[in-house]
Design a protein that fits this description.
alpha/beta, OB fold (Dihydrolipoamide Acetyltransferase, E2P), Rossmann fold, Ribonucleotide Reductase Protein R1, domain 1, 3 domains, five-stranded mixed barrel, 8 helices, 24% helix
Length: 294
């Protein structure tokens, strides 16, 4: 029995990187019966077939440190939330949804502001917003090849996923990090100003300077499973840091008097855009009934 990491999953086949090479595997039928499926990023135990040493079966999924539903990936160290300054202009609410998703899963969020060459002023304004969070913020341009050394430094020896809406330049950034990737990049629709999805399956790519990065479609979903409105504040670190002096225990930091968060907002310790995201997500979570929380 060999131990390895699933680096690609497509059409019911799982490609497992092991000390003895890449093995093409099928999952045992018992996984389907137990309602569990292997994910890219899983550490697994496999058995090779007697007829072909390059093929085998996934027998056991080792314990995961985290897992995501959309897309189905596991064991991420960090999530690089990629924001496009322009063409298309990213939704900061979506970016904040992704940082909350990462925080809730125990994954470190980082911010990469791409296409800064298209609007330096806007790029700097977005950086100021996220500087208040304490997250690492990288200014980059795949076209101008700026910020790549900073990106390499944070990716080195980590397992990372890039997240963000279509067209922000995730594949373009990855192509700049390694000539071996040659990932397909998409154009932005003139009509909708939105990017077109180019990645069609999930794959874990090995970085030439150490570490792995996920090339995956659909990592723009907000996973609110298990999060309550009352817990939300702990996933906004700059807000969580200033809540203790609030007048009322259990303050929602929405409209209560004597709220320390409102004071911090006036003092510039919290970016208005981040607070607006907190309010929007709080109200959305309030609509979820207790019995609907998984």
């Amino acid at each position: 029995m060999l131990t390895g990491t699933i680096v690609k999953g497509i059409g019911g086949f799982y490609y497992v990187k092991t000390p003895e090479g890449l093995i093409e595997c099928r999952a045992r039928g018992r996984f389907r019966k137990e309602g569990e499926s292997p994910m890219v990023g899983d550490l697994v135990r496999i058995t090779r077939t007697a007829e072909d040493a390059g093929k085998g079966s996934v027998d056991e999924i080792l314990p995961r440190k985290n897992a995501f539903i959309r897309p189905p990936v596991a064991n991420i160290d960090q999530l690089v939330v990629t924001i496009s300054v322009k063409n298309p202009e990213s939704s900061l609410l979506m970016a904040d949804q992704l940082t909350v998703t990462a925080e809730a899963a125990g994954v470190l969020p980082l911010i990469c502001i791409n296409k800064q060459d298209l609007d330096e002023k806007r790029a700097s304004a977005i950086k100021e917003i996220y500087d208040t969070t304490g997250y690492t913020v990288i200014m980059a341009s795949a076209k101008e090849e700026t910020g790549l050394e900073e990106l390499k430094a944070v990716l080195k020896d980590k397992i990372t996923a890039l997240a963000g809406n279509s067209g922000v330049g995730k594949s373009s950034l990855l192509n700049r990090l390694s000539e071996a990737f040659s990932l397909e990049t998409g154009s932005v629709s003139d009509k909708t100003r939105r990017g077109r999805h180019t990645t069609r399956h999930t794959e874990l790519l090995e970085l030439p300077f150490g570490g792995y990065v996920f090339d995956t479609p659909g990592f723009s979903s907000y996973a609110s499973e298990g999060i309550t409105a009352e817990e939300l504040v702990q996933f906004f670190p700059e807000i969580a840091r200033v809540t203790h002096p609030c007048r009322f225990v259990g303050c929602a930091h929405m409209a209560e008097p004597g709220c320390a968060v409102k004071e911090a907002l006036l003092e510039g310790k919290i970016a208005p855009e981040r607070y607006e995201s907190y309010q929007a997500l709080y109200q959305a979570l309030k609509q979820i009934k207790p019995w609907e929380i998984k």
